[in-house]
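dude i think i finally got it to work??
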Amino acid sequence: MLVREPALWRDVPVRGEILDASARELSGLAALRLVRGHPPMGRLTGLTFDGADTGTAAFSMPVSPWFEWSHGGVPGGVLALAADAALGCAVQSLLPARTQYTTAEMSLTYVRPTRIGSRITVHGRAIHSGRTLGLSTGEVIDDEGRLVAYSTSRMRVFGDSAAGAPSRGGTAAPPAASHGSRGADEGPDPYLRPVSGERIAPGEFLARSGVEIIHAQLRGELPLPPIHHLLGITPTEATLGAASCAMPLSGWLATPFGWPQGGFIVLLADLALALATQTTLAKGEGMASVDIKVNFLRPVAGDGSTLEARAKVVHRGRSLTVGTAEVIGADGRPVALATGSTALFGP
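look at this
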């Protein structure tokens, strides 16, 4: 059995700044300009708010070794953390006072793999902002100026009242403002600490089928990757053509406005779809995510409960799979629905 390693998502107290509810009395752009420190999700991952103007917003993030997945690459869904922030804030910059938004739909099309050690930047641009609907687009660019992914998003816009707000899952109360403390900031932020976990040795993929790899991880015979120790995402089940994984809704996933960011849900769904495809791989076969589209059904709260993404392959050709995934909250209600495609490679 493998030795248990640190679980960063369990670290308390959670670090990071959360804005006071009075920020809702300001216009969206004025509220964004109040953001000075990093929110919890930024302290966890290194995501940085680079600024916003009317109809635009930019975020960047280091692709640290903590984002490595079992096969050694960076899951495409990691890009959703920066993309969801930039696309959402681009729409927020156009909203009047006492108006909020939540991501209703998001898509990512992957252009090339993301390299560990690089830095990605997303420039979000709002293309429509109405009373109930916001639309935005963004390009994910690496530090060499290359296009890594293209993203689009649809926002639900609503008034700051119980009648207009979407039904929220989870049991946590609305978050209180927090500006951190000296004690909470002792030592490096999670993404800057020595990496725990490891990729699976390439020889294992030649010796075992995809589903055998996942089963060995579930039994503790093969290691869980660094992204598990950073975010708590772990496989929970695998059969031929289907797989599931889970993620704890810790306080570390919070935005400056206090609720878990939708990008983490995209990442969870993306990994579940990849695991489902992996169950169909023979020894030595490889894969790479092509795209993902997620419809968000309800927001969730950072109450420590667990989200589970259950995915299945609905089509497997010689070079491509198409799958669907459902993200379920601890209360049994669906949180999001996803579809995605994955490219297949021979031995």
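The longest strand covers residues 147-159.
im so relieved honestly
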